[in-house]
UniProtKB/TrEMBL annotation:
It comes from Shewanella inventionis. The lineage of its organism: Bacteria, Pseudomonadati, Pseudomonadota, Gammaproteobacteria, Alteromonadales. InterPro entries: HD/PDEase_dom. Transmembrane segments: none annotated. Residues 105-227 form the HD/PDEase domain. It comes from the Bacteria. This is HD/PDEase domain-containing protein.
């Protein structure tokens, strides 16, 4: 005996862009499985995602000669292991600045992401103190995972990515597709959070994390230059210093962060301890 599962969500074209097709498919299959287990061959689809209600209908045709397009056997369970967490934590093996000789220790993408999240959090707190309204959960999430796609795409230097408009567009499309594919390995109920926070961050949060990203790169290049490695990092340090100076003109929280914390990045450990009153 064969069965064909048919289902349809009653959603507008605008709503299709809010939630991924894979998420809706997984939610439909969950509704269908519950009904099928109760002996039903048709029923309604119901789901609420981020406050938006979705409705639809499903039915099962039994004893068909062949399985139709998009059909799934009712007995299939969608609880196979997800590689998302294990793959994302492979960021610890990704080396930043891969073609530049470092004398202060290697940077990894995972370590860099933790630093960006922390810098971004402090910048958001400064901004909120001065009247902004950053969502700190969104800031931390996007900061911690802003380079997640690099476990698939690898870390490519910005000058290389931006060497031509065509190459920049190709990299952007490649990275977005890689990130989307990773998110789709998650169980359906978890996908929407990551899709919203990573694929569609608010413009202000995206800009803030970009500022934090650049500042962490400045910190690294400054460390290298102060350790005598200007040959490798001198041009990067000059370029990043100019970029931070330009960005402080339109992002006051970046200026305040630099004025408050910037000098101490050049201190020795003994100086840091001496000023911490430990």
């Amino acid at each position: 005996m064969k069965a064909v599962i048919n289902f349809e969500w009653f959603i507008s074209e605008e709503m299709q862009h809010i939630t991924s097709e894979e998420t809706l498919k997984q939610l439909a299959l969950r509704n269908i499985k519950d009904g099928f287990d109760d002996g039903l061959k048709h029923g309604d689809l119901n789901a609420v995602i981020n406050g938006t209600e979705y409705k639809g209908h499903w039915h099962i045709d039994v004893e068909q000669a062949e399985v139709g397009v998009g059909a799934c056997p009712p007995a299939i369970e969608h609880n196979e292991p997800s590689p998302f967490m294990a793959l994302s934590q492979r960021q610890i093996h990704l080396k930043r600045w891969p073609l530049m000789r470092s004398v202060t220790g290697e940077d990894t993408v995972l370590g860099h992401s933790a630093a960006v999240a922390h810098i971004g959090l402090m910048m958001a707190l400064i901004a909120n103190k001065n009247g902004a309204n950053f969502d700190l959960t969104e800031v931390l999430t996007y900061g911690l995972l802003h380079d997640l796609q690099e476990v698939v795409c690898q870390d490519v230097a910005q000058p290389s990515k931006q060497s031509s408009p065509e190459l920049a567009a190709a990299f952007e499309a490649f990275e977005k597709k890689a990130l989307q594919s990773m998110i789709e390995t998650l169980p359906a109920p978890l996908q929407d959070f990551y899709a919203t926070k990573l694929l569609n961050p608010s413009p202000d949060v995206k800009n803030l994390i970009k500022n934090a990203d650049i500042y962490d790169a400045l910190r690294k290049s400054q460390d290298e230059c102060e350790a005598g490695n200007k040959k490798e990092f001198g041009l990067a340090y000059t370029r990043l210093l100019d970029e931070v100076a330009t960005r402080t003109k339109t992002n006051s929280y970046l200026s305040e962060f630099h004025e408050t914390f910037g000098e101490a990045y050049s201190w020795s450990f003994d100086q840091l301890v001496a000023h911490s009153h430990i």
